[in-house]
Amino acid sequence: MNFALPTRRQDHQQPKMPSQPTQAQLNLAALAGSPSPRTMRSLRKIQSHQVLSSTLPQPASARSSVRPDEGSQPVLLDSPVRLRTHRRARSNSDSSSRELPAFGTQRRSARKTGSGFGIKRSILETLLRDGPQQGNIREGLQELRYLILSTRVEADADGMSSYRVYLWLALLDIPPVPTDEYLSLIHRGRSPAYTKIRNDTFRTLATDPLFKRRVTEASLIRLLNAVAWKLLDGKNKTKAKSRLSTSRRRDVERLITTPPSIAEEDSNSDRPISTNSRGSTVTSDSAIYVQGMNVLCAPFLYAARSEVEAFALFHTFITRECPGYIRGAMDGVHRGLRLVDRCLEIVEPKLASYLFAKGMQAELYAFPSVLTMCACTPPLPEVLHLWDFLFAYGPHLNILCIVAQLIRMRDTILESPSPNKILRSLPPLDAKEIIALTVLIVRKIPEPLYAELINHAK
Question: Region Disordered: what ranges (predicted)?
Fold first, then answer.
């Protein structure tokens, strides 16, 4: 029996389209042409990122990768987020010595201290692992900052993230620290500030069960003691350079009456400051430990995967970003408190006048928040999220974050006849809301005052 395939009819007629669109088609076209709320939110986040990045100082590694003719022009991202189609092979430290077979249904086992995410990575983690395209560090940092502002670092309910510590190291431009350097500081024994450290460590975030479960008091003592030794070494080097500079100046004064011309000494040669190649600054009046450093150190130990990483983060942060906070008189902290009053007076004049009338200056209620970068206000996972924002756009924004907390409490403060009790116990942090308010406050701050914010902790 023969089967013949049916042939296509030549006279096959196509279905006729209606001459005019229906009402349903018109409605769909109208909906497709209108911008969605998600699109509008993305545009606002891009605009806020450009405002915050306009006065942001670049790290040394980013400046070195830019040619002189490109340094004067700001880098604008055509697309703040770029999806990558390639994946870099995992390093030997991330993989085991024997490769296991991969199954389609196999799931990644959750870490005890990790976040327990699935195999799929976020765009932020992918950018952090793969690095910037074409090795453009400046553009890569811009992308990291935008992603931190527009999205949240993935973490579990305890605030633990598998890549947050590496994000902080990249944003603060901190190179790897040899473990032997940290161990050598520990093996030196008790520092001169050991007694003060022991008097504070046992009450560091004492009411936070998350911190107590992950960080031991012994690790906090070791880290603070090692930092104290490191700061003491910096002070001794500063004093030695100061004595050498003074003797050289005396030699110049003795020879100044002689006929040969002598090159003029640098006007700042006798200034007792020691600055290393990474920009960290230690002065002769810097303290090796001040009260509050234990709380400022706590989030670094909580987020880091080792004490060495926490040591590198904490030491670099206090010596480079806020050296004025660890001087004997803590003049940087007091300047920050005065800036809280001035910024509040500009942003919320009614609230500021009410607090000033009650004799409530920032010196009376905001000292712990300024000194610890809001780490004294729970919950700790929200503190970590807020620090992601501060490390991306500058720790000086902590002053405006404190103003944002006061604005959140505005009605409660104005209705209270005694705001002192309210301000002594701030409400729990809501990092997302505080960051949103801070972005709005930045636009209201005059440029001269904003310049003072940037330099108040130096």
Answer: 1-23, 50-115, 255-280
CA pair distance 240, 168, nearest whole angstrom:
33
pTM, full prediction: 0.72
Burial of 293 from C-beta contacts in 10 A (0-12 / 13-18 / 19+): buried
Q: What is the dotted CATH code of the domain comprising 331-455?
A: 1.10.472.80
* Strands 281-283 and 273-275, bridge-based pairing: antiparallel
Dist CA 206 CA 290 (whole Å): 19
Q: How far is CA 239 from each of CA 36, 190, 232, 286, 332, rounded to the nearest angstrom?
A: 62, 22, 11, 12, 22
Residue type, 212: K
In a 13 Å sphere around the CA of 270, the CA atoms on its Cβ side amount to 9
Q: Quick one: which of 167, 174, 141 has its CA closest to 56?
A: 141
Rg, the chain, Cα only: 28
- Chain region(s) in the chain for CATH 1.10.472.80: 331-455
- CA distances 21 to 16, 134, 351, Å, are 13, 49, 58
Cα(104)–Cα(106) distance, integer angstroms: 6
Question: What are the tens digits of pLDDT across the range 182-237?
Answer: 999 999 999 999 999 999 999 999 999 999 999 999 999 999 999 999 999 988 88
